[in-house]
Amino acid sequence: xxxxxxxxxxxxxxxxxxxxxxxxxxxxxxxxxxxxxxxxxxxxxxxxxxxxxxxxxxxxxxxxxxxxxxxxxxxxxxxxxxxxxxxxxxxxxxxxxxxxxxxxxxxxxxxxxxxxxxxxxxxxxxxxxxxxxxxxxxxxxxxxxxxxxxxxxxxxxxxxxxxxxxxxxxxxxxxxxxxxxxxxxxxxxxxxxxxxxxxxxxxxxxxxxxxxxxxxxxxxxxxxxxxxxxxxxxxxxxxxxxxxxxxxxxxxxxxxxxxxxxxxxxxxxxxxxxxxxxxxxxxxxxxxxxxxxxxxxxxxxxx
Length: 303
Known about the structure:
Blueprint (H helix, E strand, L loop, with lengths): L2 H19 L4 E3 L18 H19 L2 E12 L5 E13 L5 E7 L12 H10 L12 E11 L2 E10 L8 E9 L5 E9 L14 E8 L3 E15 L8 E16 L7 E2 L2 E2 L29
């Protein structure tokens, strides 16, 4: 065989291998149906200032989140070709903190899992505990490219939309890749829609995750806490090491309920000032009303 032919065959093999390696590991189902049209016009303040303000609010939110107890329910289903559930993982956990601030998780209900086509991995549990309620603090924002996309209405809330992607993916670290919606008036994140990355694509060791959307609602008239996460998609497992390839349709629903403040005092920092004294959580800064329009999860989600 001429050398030129061997080179062409080798190049073709390399391209085929690269294509297989780059194969998409999932197919997402639409999660943001019902959102209004995207208006690409600029925000009322400079984008860098807007990013600085909402990431500062996220820093406050993360600190406040540790002052609350709540209940988390997790349901993961596999769906067969007839659209019926053929396996389920379900768990209800109460989240609290000890006097030293250490997080405690008390499982109150956990029937035996009937999942057979997939298994729940440590990465899955870590995502559920730490990353599905995605928080973008000032410090975390340094790891991401943040691009302004425009304005969009969600339910009764006018929002700014940003695309978020990791600048660099370091080994043994997980990141968010997707979009966030920021309330135009109070500059707090109200919806996140995307995926935790990277997936482990090693043949025979695949560890894939679903794209998801998380809705927040206002708690105690001030902070927007996660209340509902839903993921829906088909994961494409290529198989290997004794495992056959398989496309698995999965749904994941996480609900966050029963938020209760457990500390007697909370130190609230707003625009560099301590506003804790005299407020007792009854009146947010700048005469922010106790209630405002809320984002609402789909009325009839597929669960």
